[in-house]
Design a protein that fits this description.
The protein contains 14 helices and 30 strands. The protein is α+β, with helices and mostly antiparallel strands. Among the domains are: about 170 residues, no CATH class; about 180 residues, no CATH class. A hairpin with a 6-residue loop joins strand 3 and strand 4.
Length: about 750
Amino acid sequence: MKPGVKKAIKIPCIIIGVILILLIIVNFAAGPIAKSYINNHCKELCGRTVTVEKIRTNLFVGKVTVMGLKMLELNDKDEFCSFDTLVVKINPFKLISNEVKLNEITLINPKAVIIQDGDAFNFDSLIDFYASDEDEPEEEDSTNWIINLNDITLKGGEVDYRDVAIGSQFDMGNLQLEIPHIYFSGEDTDVGINLDFAEGGRLGLQVAYGMENGKYDLDIDLEDFSLAPVFPYLKESMNVSSFDGKLTSKISVKGSTEHIMNIVASGDVEINDIVLKDLDENDVITANKIKVGIDKIDTEKNIFAFNEILVDGIKTEYIIYDTLHDNIDKLFIEDSADEEEDKAESSGDDMNLTIKKFTLDNSNIVYTDNSLLEKFVLPITNINVNANNLNLVSQFDAKLKAQVGDKGELKGSFVGSLSNFSNMKLNISLKNIKLKDMSPYCVHYTAYPITDGILSLSSISTITNNYLNSSNELNILNCTVEKKRKDVKAEYSNIPLKAGLYILSDRNKKISIDLPVTGNIDDPSFKIGKLIWKTFCNLMVKIATSPFDAFKKNGGEDNFRDMYMDITDRTLTVENYQQLNKLSEEFLDIIADKPDIKLEITQSLDKTTNLNQIALFRLKMDCYLEETGKTREELTVEEYKAIQAMRDKDPKLVDYAKAKANARNTTEAAMKLYSGAELEGMYKMMNGMREKNLREYFSGQGIPSDKVTFAPIDEASPDKNRITIKFGMDLPDNVDDIVLDVDE
């Protein structure tokens, strides 16, 4: 080979060799140099302390490996983020054709601590550091670069989120991220994310995202996520000490990053083992499971369609502390600002809510009322509610059944709309309820304790424009009520409960009562329980003051109404017999069921008028006897009636009175002619005659004499011109009730 040729070959080889040596030197030196620069100039680069253990480069294959990176918080003490290894592989030859092609991005065991304090985050300083106060110049005629990212992987690692203002913390570990390829146009980018939570549970996300149009399709697979970290957020609005449960869901969400609030979602959500405790560590509510099947949620069109909502195994307690407060009120923190915000948010398009099937199953509630004179506790167990096709427009049917107390049975049905509770129908059936359980209410309202008995109730209620009309049929068996408590000041203290119950009960100790209840539920003072007791107490008063009303057959005529007689009547009239015939028939039916009841008869009259009328009648009789020459014993019934019918100003009578007594009128003459003792005797005789006639009548009707009693005569009647015969009930001595005036 010629010397010139050798030289020509030798020089390029030397140059290439030098370049290769330089490249090798740079390849091995680039990592340590970059490491040193980062460690020494980190504050200039990002405003934080950053340390790197090792950086390796392989320029020949375009691979950079960063190991042991750690970034501190602004205080240069606490760790903000770190990772074990970052591997980036780039195809350097693609840079020549304006393409950035990354063949691999692998991040191993990254760790980050995200801290939020109100609106501030611990990474705000990084954002501020890179933010520029000057407007960025518009790019002119920039060359189009193609970005091609492949095989993006995250393995292991942790992310800890802390909200110091609320006191909440979410710790996520074992992070797994896989992105085979990121497409910036055309196809959607598929992203797979998996992570485990420190409190238990895992999260899997699968995302298909279109970089060009911003649309995404997200599948969420969440399993056994602990709700305990949510508790601090509940404390903002609720007085609770702890909250826990496990959330599992599989949901598909479609949306766009351009309209982030508009999403379409479907899937299933399930929460298990729910426990919420109040500040006294009492279980406010527990539940085995709440399951929600989402048909479709479209926030843009305001559609919320659920195929199923299942609530299973709820256990809770409703406690009334006084007439104004209960444990539900105590649970929530009042915030007037929230109320105004809720009112503002209530405006807008109407929600299209539908629930194909709602089920409440295997649930229990303990109803406790401390507002009474005695504490009332009633467990309601095995509650089951079923409803289909719930919505905010049309009416739907709901069915309820439950066990009340030990053996009571509750069934109910509801017809109404979720958007209009001003109009609805509600039917309730209660059977086999122990009356003793209701004793605290009876003591509170009437001062009578209940010791035994069974209650059944059938209630049909309608609410129209917030006005309640309720028909209630009460059936009570073997009701036993103790003596009225003298130490209790009951709300309705003058209620003759024992008398009312005795009168209403039949021979089998059964009571049937129709109890209508009405009222405006919009009235702030409206309380259904108090209204029912008030209606019941009014009924007891009515029964005690008008006891025979309870025995009217089919709502018929009052055969026990007052009966009237003229002062001088010696015998019963036809009208009297007609009334007494009906009365005796009905009273025979009464004592057949209640042999202890007696018919009590009271004669009411004005004694002064009575004596005057008797004297005048005696004057008329003597006038007639003198004229006819007869004796009293010879008078016929017709003659007796003729004497009664004689006018006070009859000329013959006036002449007779003047001749006998020289008086101005017949009444004055009668009072002069007959002595007080004689009139008193006639007065007593005529009263006794009426009593004798009535006794003989009832005896002839088959009513034993011991079932008819006569009360002392009421001699101060306001009706001065006739005798009033009143019929009442003489109850057994063991019915120890007060006697009410009609006004009470």
